[in-house]
Each structure stands twice: as C-alpha cells, then as structure tokens.
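ARCHIVE CARD
SHELF: 3
SLOT: left
DATA:
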Amino acid sequence: MLYLTILFLLFTGASLLSDVQVVVVNVNAFAFSSHSSNQPSFRISRNQRRDNEISGLQTTTATATLLECVDDLLQRECKDTWIIPTETEILERVHKQHASDCQTAVSSPLALDSIRSQEYGDENNYKKVRTIPHEWIVSRKGRKKIAVQSLTPVLNVTEIAILQDAVDTILEQRRVEEGVSASTKSRFTYQFKGNSEVHAADFAKLSDGRAITVINNLLVERLYPLVREAFPNDVTSSHKMFVYDSLMIRYNASASDHKSAGQPLHRDLGVISVNVMLNDGFEGGGTYFDNQADGELVANNDQACLMPIKPSGGPGCCIAHFSNERHAGAGTTSGVRDILVFFLSLDELTPQLSNAHLKQTRSACDDRLQQDQENVSSKEKILCRIRHQRLAIEMLPNDGEAYLYLGSALLDFAKQVSDGLERVDVLNHAIQSLQHASTLTPNDARIYNNWGIALARLEEEEKEEVQWGENEERRGKGGLTKTNVQQTYQRGLKLLLQAREAGCAVDDDIDALSLNFGLYLSNQDAFADACAILEHPVSRWRKEPTSVCNQQVSPDWSEFHQQ
C-alpha cells in the first residue's frame, strides 16, 4: 500500500508547493474627481532601496544580504532579455490598475468617502456621522491587535431586514434566469459550493432603491468614520476611502458539499476589511485569524483563544481588520449565516496597496509573457515572479507573505540552475527567505510546507558526489541545513490542525503538506512514520475513515487529479 503511494508521489512530481498569489507603493495621490496624467518616477536606486529596507524593524543584516543577492541574481539573469518586465514597467502597471480601481469606484453606485477626517470637526459635517463605540480585539497574550469590533450595532433590525429581502429577491431572479443551482452558486474567488453572495452594487438594480440607500447611509454615516477613528495611521487626514468591493455572503450549512460552509485562509484586496453580522440562529461561523495565537502552538486546554471571532454585540455589529491580515471564514456547521463585507481602499496608492498588487504575480507575469509564448521559458516566468516579490518586499519590508512568495519562487528557480554549487546557493537563499518569513508571520503554515521542501532538496544536494573543495563553506550558510526537516513539517502540520480545530477548511493544505512530509520520511526509510503521515490524504481520497496502514487495496487516485 505505502509502496503504491510513494510511486504515485514520484510519478506526479513529488513536491506540492503551497500556492502563491496576491496583493501593493506610494506613487501619487489619486483624486476621485480627476485622472492624473502625470506618470510618477518609479526608479529606485539600489542604495535607496537598501536604506528603505534596513529601516524596517525586522530587517536583519542577514536579510539585507539576502536581498542584495536576489538583486544580483535578477541583474545577472535579466540583462540579456527583453521579455521579463522591468521594475518601471511593473510599477506602471500597478499604478494603472489602481487608477482603474479609483475610476470604477467613481462610476459605482456605492458611496465614496466625501468627508476627509479633518472635516469631521465641522459642525455641519458632524451632524452627518455617528460616533461608533468600538474596541480592539487582541491576540492570546495581547501582543498583537487583531481586529476592531463595534460595541453597538451599525445596522438596525429594519435595515438588516431590507438587505436580506433584497438578497432573496436577487437570488430568486438569478435562479429563474440561470437555473435551479444558480442561486447557490459561488461567484467569489474564495467561496465553496453551497455558499451564495450578492454584490452590494447590484442592490442599485432593484426598483425600490431601499437596499442601496441602506448601504450608502451605512458607509457615509458609520463605517467610514469608524475606520478613520480606529485606523488613524493607515487612513490619514489626506486620504479618501472607497469600496473596492462589497458583498453580502450567505453560508448555508445544509447546501454545502463540505461538512460546513465557510472560506479558506486568505488575505483580502484593499486596506481595511469590514464584516457586519446580519443574523444569529446558526452554529459555527465567525472569522479566524492566523495571528490569534501570537505565533505559538496552543495546548488542547487553551483552545478558547482560537475560537473564531464574532461581534460580541450580535447582529448589526461589525468587526474591521487590515485586509492583509490572513484570516478564514470558519465553517457554519448548522443553519444559515448572513454577513455583509466591505473591502475598503484609498484614493492614494499606498505601500500596502502596492505590495498587495505586486504579490499577484501569476496573472501579471502570464499576461505579460503570453505576448511571446513560443520564446518564453519556465526560467523567465520564474524570474518575473522573483522580480515582483522583490518589489513587494521593497514596499513593505516586514511582510512575511512576500518573503514566503520570494522563497517559493527561488525554490522553483533552483530547478533551472545546472551548476551544482550555484543551485545550492539559490536553495540557501530560498531557505533564508522562508526562514525570515517564519519570523514575520509564524502562524502561516504554507511557510513550513515550502521550507521543508527546500531543506529536503538541500539535503539531497549534499548527498550528491560534488567536489566541494574550497567551497565547502557554501553548504548550510548560517546553519540552515542544521534545521530539522521533520520539525519544520511537523510545525506546519500542527498549525493546520489547529486551524481545522477552529473550524477552518484546511483539509487540502493538510493533504499537500502530508504528501511532502510522507515522501521525505519514505526517502529516509522511515516507512512506518510515512504511513502514519499519509493516512489523512489517502483516507480522504478513498472517502473511508479506516487506517491506510491496514489497507491492502490500491487507493483510487482519480480524486487527487480533480483537486
């Protein structure tokens, strides 16, 4: 049984890297009322870049050296190719995307933030807004602010009923027009079947106009003021906010293919995300944040700190958090849960917004490189990813996710390097990037999956019959190879199990990490341990809760190819 499992892993390519995607620079303030035709200067010198990054609180000498090595790699590998976009071209694309987002907001039926924060003191404007009492929810040991919750409702019972009626109307129209399943079909990136949603802008299509009026009053009179007061360093007096996107999401546990209805761990686009609770009478649900545990694994007797967060005031109240705070919609296990979410952005392209756009490298690189598909190599696609993530780090030097994506891209690039010593150098850079990511975002399990892969590959390189000679010091720079591969995988697995215990849909992530971990153990001839680790993914694919180690029949692998 285990032999067949290992053969399958080898045949399908062995390592499953955690998926890389996502989100982005201080360019120009972008006014709602006008389109600036002046293109900003994007060129940043290497000395200026180094000064910017060294000023980051978490940037160490080793990390600065790593980034210089990445700069050298890009300069060396990209100098003779025109296919890979330059830094200037990448940043111009980000600027244009943000300008497009602002123009879309202007034409949207959703209200803009028309009152800057310094104007709230004006007596006439003060009458238009309500001060919303709120408090911060902090992490397990109080080290980190997780989210703000309103202490009083931002929507009353009547307003909630108007929104729910509007959603029912739109979903019924969709069902009639598109078929029986259309009303429960997801159109949102992170949704599962059984969830349904309606974009708030669609409320404007309803003839009575009540729902869109509720939404716009909510934004102008309550949410925009609340966000300004709660996040004064991020939404400053010079900024105006707008809605990047907004939806009302319905989690229906009975309609879900899964045992519960929710969302996987992810980050949002925008600057601040707001989640308004619209009903009770369901079980499960809430928002789970990676950082709730303060970067620590939590004992079984202390699981309360990992409970998904819901507004303590009940329906009508909201929570607000940084959009780049990694979180999940915990599964609704019984009943129906309705929430209204807003992804708020700014008229100015801030470092956070630029960082977010830059991390969305897959689509950006594919769009650019498909112009000359016949001549584009895998190596050039990876270099495009590396350049994007390098710029993302430049925008936010303390963003652990950008270091995760950089390390993952370097890990892929190592496969393109034919020289053994150079390949080891690139692997060491990947490991160092992933190691630094773990200090910035210690509860992101994706880091440990990819870190384990990188360490295992480096071990294999060191087993090769390479004449190290005077270059022996290149092995295990900074003691990186001394890191225990098993401990790295185990931490990632424990974090995922912790998230699953909180109600998050992480089974696919557990499977990916378990496959990589199991393959590594089998290569170390630790077959019993490998069998135990592989039990979870194999039993899922077979849809049988029995032990893999006792099975004598080959599993049905067809479901793996569908995931």
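SLOT: right
DATA:
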Amino acid sequence: MGFLNNIKDSVIILLLGVAAIIIDTKNPDVVKWVRIIYYGIHAINLIAILIVHINILVKGQKEKFTYTRITSVLGAAAGEGEVKVISIPIAEYDLIQKNALLRSNLIILVILTITHVLFGWTKPLLLQVYFPLKLLLIHPLFRVHLLQREAKGNLARPWDMYYRIPLSTIGDVIRERPTIPRDIKKQKKESMKQSGEKSKLKRK
C-alpha cells in the first residue's frame, strides 16, 4: 500500500507540475480560479481542523497513555537525540497534534499568500493544492475525530507524524514511538545523573 500511495502521490504532483507549466498566469480568469481552488481547499482543511478541535474538547479524554519522544537537531547522526518518556492525557496529546497541523497550514498559507500578492507568483499556489488534502487523508487525527474511528491498530497513538508535516517543528526532528522498557531505564539513568550533578553544584 505504501508503494502504491507513493506512486499515486508522484503522479498527482507530476500532473500539478504540468498544469503549473501550462497555465497562463497573465490571464485574470486563470489566476482567479487558481485562487479559488487553493484557498477553497485550505478553507476546507482549516474547517476540518476546527471540527477536530471541538471534538477533542467534547470527548475530553483524560486517560493517560505513555509514549517515547526522540528529539534531535536537524542534520544530526542517526541515534543522536534526546529520548524522553512522556505520560500525557489523550486529549492533551491530540491537541498538541492539532496545533502542529494548524501551525504548518497557517505558515504555508501566509508565505504563499505573501509571495502571490507581492510578487504575483501564482504557480506555487497550484503546486501546493494537494498538500492540505493529503494531510486530511493520511493523518490519524482526522480519521479518529472526523470519521470517528477507534484509535487502535494503525490509528493507535502515538502517531509519529511530525516528520511528515512541513514546518511543524523548526530546527528539530521529532519522532514518536510506543515506550519500551529500555526507554524507561535510560530516562531513570539520565534523571539520576542530573540529580547527582545538581547535588555536586550545591556542595560547591
């Protein structure tokens, strides 16, 4: 399925690229329709995010779950990064995921709007049409809160979606995974090490 999805994405992006080359950006009607399509799709995406936000608050899932987050600096070697075991209410986790999506959408929307208004760039709007729709299709947040599917199997938290959402983090690479015993042991060692260093500083 992943391979077929990649092919489908490549075909759609290729078609959008061809369309961006073919369109006459000096034609006001063409520019108008590109704007309608681009901003219409973004509006749908933002409305979906709003519905998700409301649904998260209505459900109010206070049950906690534990997962591991690995944060590394962009460009760091594999395996290098801060490993942190996090216990968090489901609702809080979902809101964090929603905020990452919203931030990404708004940043891209603002950047492309500025370049379109100031420099008259229309083709990038068409090239970015697929991105908001793709997020609606692949992000578990929408499936769980819009389609009301159970968060099990492929939809089980943590969702590990930061690396698939452009600009969701600035300068860092964040990956998520279910917690394993080794993560807990490692965090305990780090905590003990930090406590020891603090006690040494106090003695000085």
